[in-house]
């Protein structure tokens, strides 16, 4: 006799996925996004602050940790992914794990991300702050989390994220239910995948769409809001020229990449993570093959 679902057990709000599916989706999204030549970011073609190989070495342990995000709090998942990356390479990016952890937890537990974020507590705050500390991360988010820890045990990670949402891209996503990832980056990547001839090109196109619409928060923090808006304007110009789908667009991408690499303050480091998160969501929904079956050898250096 089947259960009627009235026993008091939590009923999934949406179909849950398996740990293996989450790990595979995360590994696919991270590997392909880390490798794609997004202007101003590290890729298989040009390093930025880290060697490309260092970021690729993060992928297996991060994917493995995310596979069990349903059994851990979001903060604990980010801390464990950070610690695993540090053990392997001596470097880590809590931001990347921070983007994927709530999405992975929601998928594994059959919960909407809004529910996952609403339930973030003080334990998540403590673990997340520890992840930033051990990785040596500095900035508005790290400062806000330390202040929140001193405010008492009633303060939650969601509270701290809301406080600093205007100055940190990850905090903005936690405060606004992953608005940029779900409402801009994911649709842009889906459209790009339907039109581009490779996943690499689709990721670059989606990145340009996000950069054109949302001035990069990290650029604004380093160089000022005007400079961030100028970079967004340049991205819009590249898209008007055709983006990855025209020769003029490709020339514009190369020129934009050169400008952004010439001045480290203009690196759009806040724009890559929502594209990674969007790729993760698509890999969860349609399977990793939605991304991995569209790989082609690079030609002409790209």
Question: Can you describe this structure?
Answer:
- This protein has 302 residues and is mostly helical.
- Helices cover 66% and strands 0% of the residues.
- The protein contains 16 helices and no strands.
- The chain has helices at 19-35, 52-66, 74-89, 94-109, 113-118, 122-135, 140-149, 157-163, 169-175, 179-195, 199-213, 217-223, 225-240, 247-262, 272-286, 289-292.
- α1 (19-35) runs antiparallel to α2.
- The longest helix is centred in the N-terminal third of the chain and has 17 residues, at 19-35.
- The chain is globular and about 55 Å long.
- The relative contact order is 0.14.
In terms of topology, how is this protein built?
Elements: H1 19-35, H2 52-66, H3 74-89, H4 94-109, H5 113-118, H6 122-135, H7 140-149, H8 157-163, H9 169-175, H10 179-195, H11 199-213, H12 217-223, H13 225-240, H14 247-262, H15 272-286, H16 289-292
Helix pairs in contact: 1-2, 1-15, 2-3, 3-4, 3-6, 4-15, 6-7, 7-8, 8-9, 10-11, 10-15, 11-13, 11-15, 12-13, 13-14
């Amino acid at each position: 006799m089947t259960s009627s679902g009235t026993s008091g057990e939590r009923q999934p709000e949406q179909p849950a996925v398996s740990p293996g599916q989450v790990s595979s989706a995360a590994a696919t999204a991270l590997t392909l996004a880390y490798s794609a030549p997004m202007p101003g970011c590290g890729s298989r073609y040009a390093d930025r602050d880290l060697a490309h190989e260092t970021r690729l070495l993060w992928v297996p342990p991060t994917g493995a940790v995310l596979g069990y995000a349903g059994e851990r709090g979001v903060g604990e998942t980010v801390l464990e992914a950070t610690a695993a990356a540090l053990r392997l390479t001596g470097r880590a990016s809590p931001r990347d794990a921070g983007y994927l952890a709530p999405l992975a937890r929601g998928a594994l537990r059959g919960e909407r991300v809004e529910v996952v974020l609403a339930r973030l507590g003080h334990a998540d705050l403590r673990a997340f702050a520890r992840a930033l500390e051990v990785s040596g991360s500095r900035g508005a988010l790290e400062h806000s989390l330390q202040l929140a820890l001193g405010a008492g045990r009633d303060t939650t990670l969601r509270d701290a994220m809301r406080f600093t949402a205007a100055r940190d891209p990850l905090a903005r996503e936690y405060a606004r239910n992953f608005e940029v990832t779900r409402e801009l980056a994911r649709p842009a990547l889906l459209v790009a995948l339907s039109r581009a001839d490779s996943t690499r090109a689709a990721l670059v196109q989606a990145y340009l769409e996000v950069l054109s619409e949302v001035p990069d928060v990290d650029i604004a923090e380093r160089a000022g809001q005007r400079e961030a808006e100028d970079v967004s304007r340049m991205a819009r110009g590249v898209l008007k020229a055709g983006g990855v789908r025209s020769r003029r667009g490709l020339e514009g991408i190369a020129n934009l990449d050169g400008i952004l690499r010439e001045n480290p303050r203009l690196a759009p480091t806040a724009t890559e993570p929502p594209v990674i998160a969007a790729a993760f969501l698509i890999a969860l929904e349609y399977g990793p093959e939605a991304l991995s079956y569209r790989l082609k050898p690079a030609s002409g250096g790209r």
